[in-house]
Amino acid sequence: MAEAKWYVVHTYSGYENKVKANIEKTIENNPHLAEQILEVRVPLQDVVEVKNGKQSVVQKKMFPGYVLLNMDMNDDTWYVVRNTRGVTGFVGPGSKPVPLTDLEIRSLGIQTEGAKSGGISIDFAEGDTIAIIAGVWKDTVGVVHKLDMGKQTATINVELFGRETPVEIPFAEVKKLD
């Protein structure tokens, strides 16, 4: 069996959960697919909404219209996924699906096998001063207030409009200052 990789499937808008359920039902009905299609995800993120002056945290889809699949790409799995109701196709040029890179997977917060076994290591801790080396906050310096190993992010306070504001930064975008 080839190595399973993460692929992105485009769906009709609003059909993400139906597509996920349909693929999981197909896997349930065809046990040989369970070894080839390992996981189906609709990535969600927590968003703070304010309605009528009240704050609430709700989960919203990170990528409306897309579903992530961890699978071994072959003719059978391609056919099953491609012909699932609500799927318009794989993301990639033409009809050739392109797997996500390790960097893309990490930036989505998806843990790979190494990270699941505690394989992540960083050279900074809470209270350390770090510099942001990429992204919107590039060249900003701050002190780590919180580490989230699951999401692989560090929370630091940055000055924004004269106020201290907590910002969550991926581990890959920061380095420890000596």
Low-confidence stretches: 113-119
Specify the CATH homologous superfamily of the largest domain. Answer: NusG, N-terminal domain
Estimated helix fraction:
10-25%
Mean pLDDT: 83
**What is CATH's topology name of the largest domain?**
Alpha-Beta Plaits
| β-strand number | 11
Number of helices: 4
Structural shape: elongated
Strand order of the largest sheet: 10-9-8-7-11
Short description:
The chain has 178 residues and is an alpha+beta fold. Helices cover 18% and strands 39% of the residues. The strands form three sheets. The protein has a five-stranded antiparallel sheet with strand order 10-9-8-7-11, with no helix packed on it. A four-stranded antiparallel sheet has the order 2-5-1-6, covered by helices on one side.
Structure report:
The chain has 4 helices and 11 strands, in the order E-H-E-E-E-E-H-E-H-H-E-E-E-E-E. 18% of the residues are buried. The protein folds into 2 domains: 5-109, NusG, N-terminal domain (Alpha-Beta Plaits); 129-176, Roll (SH3 type barrels), CATH 2.30.30.30. The longest helix is centred in the N-terminal third of the chain and has 14 residues, at 16-29. With 178 residues, the protein is of the alpha+beta class. It has helices spanning 16-29, 75-82, 102-107, 113-116; strands at 5-11, 37-41, 44-51, 54-61, 66-71, 87-90, 129-132, 141-148, 153-160, 163-170, 174-176. It starts with a strand and ends with a strand. A 5-stranded antiparallel beta sheet has the order 10-9-8-7-11, with no helix packed on it. 18% of the residues lie in helices and 39% in strands.
